[in-house]
Write a structure and sequence with these properties.
Length: 291
């Protein structure tokens, strides 16, 4: 299926959602998900859109593809800010997710997680982006933060530096996101701490703020996809390959595992030692991606 470039605007109506702009919706999917997944979700939505107005129609769909069709409907419900309403419709219809779906989806993410051309993209961005945007990209890579978190953190460093309050956020080589819960604590996604060098924080503090809109537009002008979220995946993989405990990586990526070990026995006896290990691992992170 062709991407949004050259995609002919088409509209159609669903109950409660008149004049759906398919071009705008496809662009939303391409921005939010990988091209392959966006194609899948868009295709299923176009073919089975009746399942959005009437979830009972899902029962007529073969079980082999029903989960993907449900995901396509959920994607559209989030696009239209009607997710809670659609979830209630599914519940009232007695339709549930396949219990094996979550594990299988995780498996697919693992086998499809290919970083082979990420370095080429990262290198191209060094030529296409402005100085502060290139700096942001490096920051996103070495912290493993989610896109929105990385932008908030980057701009917060600049603001606090101007106010003379940077030490309320950055201490002993650690960015303490947990001190700003309004910025970094969401319903299901958190950011607790990030370990970075003083040199990088100093560069950011004396840089200019960044915006996702500007970065996305510049990448689009150079016919490049936004792959910031893949930097987060690369960060985690690289740290694990360099001997950092998975539980520590989870902590750095805002996850507290539900295991008994992680919740009751995992202790960071010496945070400075952990910070040193992570900084030593991330010192050549950018170079490893480029070569």
């Amino acid at each position: 299926m062709a991407g949004p470039v050259g995609f002919e605007p088409t509209t159609f109506s669903l109950e409660g959602h008149p004049n759906i702009d398919l071009k705008a919706y496809r662009e939303y999917l391409d921005e939010k998900y990988s091209r392959q997944y966006a194609c899948l979700m868009f295709g299923y939505f176009r073919k089975y859109n009746q399942c959005f107005s009437n979830p009972n129609e899902l029962l007529k769909i073969p079980s082999s593809i029903r989960s993907n069709v449900m995901k396509a409907m959920v994607c559209y419900s989030k696009y239209t800010s009607s997710y809670e309403e659609y979830k209630a419709k599914l519940k009232n219809s007695g339709i549930r997710w396949n219990t094996n779906d979550s594990a299988f989806s995780s498996f697919l993410r693992i086998v499809n997680n290919n970083h082979s051309d990420l370095g080429e993209w990262y290198s191209e961005m060094q030529k296409s982006l402005r100085d502060n945007e290139r700096l942001f990209l490096r920051f996103a890579l070495v912290t493993g933060l989610r896109k929105a978190e990385a932008i908030k953190s980057f701009n917060l460093i600049i603001r606090l530096h101007k106010e003379g309050k940077l030490d309320s956020y950055f201490k002993d080589g650690i960015l303490e996101h947990f001190r700003f819960p309004d910025l970094f604590f969401r319903k299901t996604k958190m950011a607790y701490i990030s370990i970075v060098t003083e040199g990088l924080v100093s560069e950011i503090a004396n840089s200019k703020p960044v915006s996702y809109h500007a970065i996305r537009k510049r990448m689009a002008n150079h016919k490049q996809k936004v792959r910031i979220k893949e930097l987060r995946s690369y960060f985690a993989t690289y740290l694990r390959q360099n001997g950092i405990l998975a539980e520590y990586i989870d902590l750095l990526q805002g996850r507290i595992p539900k295991s008994v070990f992680a919740r009751h026995y995992l202790k960071i006896e010496d945070v400075k030692e952990l910070a040193g290990q992570v900084r030593a691992s991330t010192e050549n992170l950018g170079k490893s991606l480029l070569f």
